[in-house]
UniProtKB/TrEMBL annotation:
TM spans (from-to): 29-56, 107-130, 151-178, 232-249, 270-291
Predominant subcellular localization, coarse grouping: membrane
Annotated signal peptide: none
A Pfam family of this chain: BPD_transp_1
Protein family according to the UniProt entry: Belongs to the binding-protein-dependent transport system permease family.
All residue ranges annotated as the ABC transmembrane type-1 domain in the record: 103-292
Keyword ATP-binding: no
PROSITE patterns: ABC_TM1
Keywords: Cell membrane, Membrane, Peptide transport, Protein transport, Transmembrane, Transmembrane helix, Transport
Name of this protein: ABC transporter permease
Amino acid sequence: MTSADLPVTAPEIPSFRERHASTIRQWRLYAHLFAGSFSSMLGLALVVLFLILAIFGPVLAPYPEDTTGAVNLSQRLLSPSLAHPFGTDEMGADILSRIIVGARTSLWIGLIITGVGAGIGVPLGIIAGYHGGVTRAVIMRVTDLFLSVPGLALALTIVAALGPGITNCVIALSLVWWPGYVRLVESKTLSVKEELYVESARALGASTPWILRRHILPNCLTPIIVKASMDMGMAILSAASLGFIGLGAKPPLPEWGSMISVARTYMPDWWWYSLFPGLAIFLTVLGFNLLGDGLRDILDPRSRSR
């Protein structure tokens, strides 16, 4: 019997149940790896705490009226106590309440800056990496131009032109946040587009949008998710930095950077005024960075093997 006489069997296609079971096993592995890292769990706990404060802040704040500009000069600059665990500010407002409600401001700042940065950078990175040629050269040269100037300095210039305020601060940071995503996604796209399954789809006549949507973008999601989780903390820190120099949120809006900006004039006698907002920024940025490290460890097999 020759090889031509042998029956040809079609490859078995996994059933939906088998694919579902495989997905469950994979996510269980991810959860096991994540739970085995103390730093990752600490980051997750800090981020969850931050999200709880951001979502339920007005309900959890012991003195919600102090977050809207209430003045109580009889309680001015009180040190931490049972009634005011974080003390009060120069207007007699409870600092703990302002920090809790300020978490919501920090959350939407981080989400908008990161979302706009990814929304601009990811499509440009995919287009540059997949098409190449003149298109890639133009996109990457513009990206290099933005990266040649420190992002915070460029944002400072934009805010100075637009005028101080939390909205202009977010706009400025969003406009300088996208180059990092272009670089990241462009390099990933360059490697993915040479894979056999992409070449096969192209040879079978698949359209470019279909290839980008079904093959390129899904394979770029892992580094995008990791970068976005870390960028949340850095976006909050950058907005707080602009608020610290007086270009961000204005009172009575509770924003951590602007609180520290006002509190620095009361150092060192009234130390609690600047300590607790600064601690809130530190713990939030730390939480997102640790969470990003944990996500990278479980989503990137190469990082686990090192």
